[in-house]
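Example record for the data management plan.
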Amino acid sequence: MHDEDYAEDALIIVVSARGIQAGVLVNEVIGNDEFVVNKLDTPLPTRGVRDLQHLRGIYRGQVAVLNMDSLFSDPVLNVGKPVGKS
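Corresponding structural encoding:
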């Protein structure tokens, strides 16, 4: 992707897990809310979702809460390796 592929007002959300910080590029932040992990709804099997282990649960039936520990430990993502240096 190139810089021109991103919206001018795109945002980066910084997440941390397993001693790693990463930025997630988003087009929009709809709100900011707090939740209790043990009160999240269980994610249901969904077509096209490879690993439900990457989801902590569903908040208010609309928001998928990601499991960053699981994502950062997935070898497919190559997390922890420097990128963008040439």
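Summary line stored alongside the record: Residues 68-73 form the longest helix (6 residues).
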